């Protein structure tokens, strides 16, 4: 299992944080220990970390229209960068 950190900007941090539980449910199919973080300086940068248990499933999900629709609803501003521990 590997640990990843996903970073990006959002339109509204409060709105993005309001979807934490939905993100845990959606991403929970592919990993555990899902945590979200916000820019402590008050900016619009956010991060999500998780331990990946299904890398192939996660990759397919990230490339799906469903994921894209969720990101739009959550106010994600692309690009999205994925950092891994490997």
Summarize the structure.
The chain has 86 residues and is α+β, with helices and mostly antiparallel strands.
- Report the mean per-residue pLDDT as an integer: 97
Estimated helix fraction: 25-40%
Task: Give the strand line-up of the largest sheet.
Answer: 2-3-1-4
Sheet with the most strands?
A: 4 strands, antiparallel
Q: DSSP helix count? A: 4
What structural class do you assign from the helix and strand content? alpha+beta
Can you tell me the overall shape? globular
- Under CATH, the topology is which? Alpha-Beta Plaits
Overall structural domain count: 1
What is the terminal separation in angstroms?
10 Å
Which regions have little confidence, pLDDT < 50, spanning 5+ residues?
none
In total, the number of strands is 4
Rg over alpha carbons: 12 Å
| Proportion of beta-strand residues | 35-45%
CATH architecture: 2-Layer Sandwich
Order of helices and strands: EHHEEHHE
CATH class: Alpha Beta
């Amino acid at each position: 299992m590997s640990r990843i950190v996903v970073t990006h900007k959002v339109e509204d941090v409060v709105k993005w944080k309001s979807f934490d539980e939905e993100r845990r449910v959606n991403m929970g199919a592919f990993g555990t220990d899902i945590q979200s973080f916000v820019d402590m300086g008050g900016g619009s940068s956010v991060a999500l970390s998780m331990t990946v248990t299904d890398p192939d499933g996660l990759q397919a999900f990230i490339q799906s229209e469903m994921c894209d629709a969720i990101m739009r609803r959550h106010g994600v501003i692309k690009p999205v960068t994925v950092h891994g521990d490997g």
